[in-house]
Write a structure and sequence with these properties.
- It is a single chain.
- This protein has 432 residues and is of the alpha/beta class.
- An 8-stranded mixed sheet has the order 7-22-23-21-20-17-18-19, with helices on both faces.
- Helix 9 packs parallel to helix 10.
- The radius of gyration is 24 Å and the shape is flat.
- The termini are far apart.
Length: 432
């Protein structure tokens, strides 16, 4: 196909204009209006005017880059992180926490076409109990890079501090860097994961070639001197425990053990409040049968089992089902059963579903639960709590419940990832 040069388009993208931002989207971009369409500008806050250059001009929207900011919003704050604006981890450290929460609350309300009743939040700093740092050996400088990816690029930003990391993990960064830089096999390191369990920190080191005995010894000494559980990952799906007690975290007073690669909520403070909210909204009674879909290793299932007559947890990952069963036994809960099922299939035909359920909770991944919602309706629970990490798929899935006669009773924004564009939520549906 022939491609033609457009002089008009080239001139448009170099154009300098003055605009005033009137909104902040959930990703932290300022939103202005220009020539009848939305203009998205990184780094500007509502009420701020700036001279900007149009960098992308589409039919429905445009993007701009700030050349000169003309005034400051009273809600502009100094970013705490020296890497902000370069590192791809955070997008909103220049905005007050209150403004971040209001913009996400408004975005959620627009998508759900319903008022947001509350914001569930915890500490806005030092909240991340898990981080994966990329590693890359540079032959020219003979230095090992350790850090996060650059915004919109594959380059690694050398991280010396990270104020959203749990303080115990942030404090480990210099020592981890020094230890890994002293290994003979630096060029064969892929990434390092740091996780803060309730019983201490752990480190998972991904390596692409066998580690020499000298390196293993250095790593073991490092783990002992820093009271750090050590795991090695010679392959993506294999994790070898070198020195560790089983990591665990608490939810609703229960102790949940997990493996280093298992999914756990990154923000412990919000997770505790989220679990409590789900229990409150479902209003579980001692004679209730409750179903937990996408149950993982029992983050909601086990607290539900403390209150209900019986609980069924269903999960698509076999290793998580096994871990959930272990957690139920170790916490003395005998009224809960877990099943490994393909949740895209009709789970209502399974033997465990024949008596129906009074309440259902679901906590799917970002893709949502499009193949599950009709089955939820068929099971006819009185209440449904949907925990979402993607408001777009939540809005889509909600339509099925609304069409079946359910109504939204409560809607909350979960501030699980302050200073980022992630928008999580929890919603209660009730059948009238």
């Amino acid at each position: 196909m022939a491609q033609f040069y457009s002089a008009k388009r080239r001139v448009t993208t170099r154009q300098i204009i003055t605009v005033t931002v009137n909104d902040l989207d959930s990703f932290g971009q300022g939103v202005a209006r220009h020539e009848g369409k939305a203009l998205f500008i990184n780094g500007l806050l509502p009420g701020e005017s700036a001279e900007i250059q149009i960098t992308e001009d589409k039919k429905q929207y445009a993007r701009g880059q700030v050349k000169r900011r003309l005034n400051d919003s009273p809600e502009r704050v100094a970013p705490r992180c020296p890497h902000f604006g370069v590192c791809g981890g955070c997008q909103q450290q220049h905005a007050s926490v209150a403004l971040q929460q209001r913009s996400k609350q408004a975005a959620l309300a627009r998508l759900m076409k319903h008022d947001v009743d509350e914001v569930i939040a915890a500490e806005p700093w030092g909240y991340r109990r898990r981080a994966r740092l990329s590693l890359s050996y540079q032959p020219k400088t003979q230095q090992l890079q350790m850090g996060f990816r650059k915004a919109n690029a594959a380059d690694i930003i050398e991280i010396v501090q990270c104020p959203v990391l749990a303080p115990a993990l942030e404090a480990l960064l210099p020592a981890v860097r020094a230890c890994l830089s002293g290994l003979k096999s630096q060029q064969h390191l892929g990434h390092v994961e740091l996780v803060l369990a309730d019983n201490g920190p752990l480190m998972v080191l991904r390596h692409t070639a066998a580690l020499p005995a000298e390196d293993r010894e250095k790593l073991e000494q490092f783990s002992h001197s820093h009271q750090l559980a050590l795991y090695l990952a010679p392959q993506s799906e294999i994790v070898e425990c070198v020195s560790a007690d089983a990591p665990w975290y608490s939810a609703d007073g229960l102790r949940l053990t997990f493996s280093p690669r298992d999914f756990i909520q990154v923000n412990d403070g919000v997770n505790q409040k989220m679990v409590a909210t789900a229990l409150d909204w479902l209003d579980v009674k001692p004679d209730d049968r409750v179903l937990d879909l996408f149950c993982g290793m029992g983050n909601f299932t086990l607290p539900l089992a403390r209150r209900a007559a019986s609980v069924v947890g269903v999960e698509g990952v076999p290793s998580l089902v096994e871990k959930a069963q272990q957690n139920a036994v170790s916490n003395g809960l005998h009224n809960v059963t877990f099943f490994h099922e393909n949740l895209e299939e009709d789970v209502t035909r399974q033997a465990w579903a024949k008596n129906g359920f009074d309440k259902i909770l679901l906590d799917p991944a970002r893709a949502g639960a499009p193949g599950v919602m009709q089955h939820v309706v068929k099971l006819a629970p009185r209440r449904v709590v949907y925990v979402s990490c993607n408001p777009a798929t939540l809005a889509r899935d909600s339509e099925v419940l609304l069409a079946a006669g359910y109504q939204i009773q409560r809607l909350a924004m979960l501030d699980m990832f302050p200073h980022t564009g992630h928008l999580e939520s929890i919603v209660l549906f009730e059948h009238k």
